[in-house]
Design brief:
The protein contains eight helices and seven strands; from the N terminus they run E-H-H-E-H-E-H-E-H-E-E-E-H-H-H. The chain is of the alpha/beta class. The chain has a single domain, classed as Aconitase, domain 4, CATH 3.20.19. Helix 3 links the parallel strand 2 and strand 3. 30% of the residues are buried. Pathway: Amino-acid biosynthesis; L-leucine biosynthesis; L-leucine from 3-methyl-2-oxobutanoate: step 2/4.
Length: 196
Amino acid sequence: MKPINEVTSILTPLDRSNVDTDQIISKEFLKRIERTGFGKYLFYHWRFDAEGNKKDGFVLNDPRFDGSEILVARENFGCGSSREHAPWAILDYGFRVVIAPSYADIFYNNCLKNCILPIRLQEEEVEELLAKGKAEPVRLEVNLAEQTVTQPDGTVHRFDIDPYWKEMLLNGWDEIALTFKYEDQITKYEKTMQRA
């Protein structure tokens, strides 16, 4: 997985609360067996009409936010079912960071396991980012090592993250890669077991 340390990007203001995993990636797109290719279906029914045409007024259809790596939303992001396809779609679309006041627990953990940084900020801080981001494109600097989100005017928001997940994201490790850290000890143990 690609490590995360610093992400500097225009924020995409998704001004919605209680965004559930079926809205993130609808059930009819879950037939793929790979982890890739889901980005084109992200928020599909909000982005496209029944004929597949882009809907006016939806933030992901606004060219000002093309290439954005930071998604900002309201509380309870990722609620609903536990489908891991939701973070796969977010990552495949290009978002590396999601900022919200709160998340559904399973979604939050699925983000971390798929190398997406889910940041919890205070509701008033998120409100400020959404308001600014809707008014004009706003470039944020996210620094995982320092645990900061910095606005263009120098305003700094600090966030918490479990040290275990911080190390995993900074190194781009998933749980399998973490196992390889102990490859020498595993090999030694296996040789000991073979002799026993």
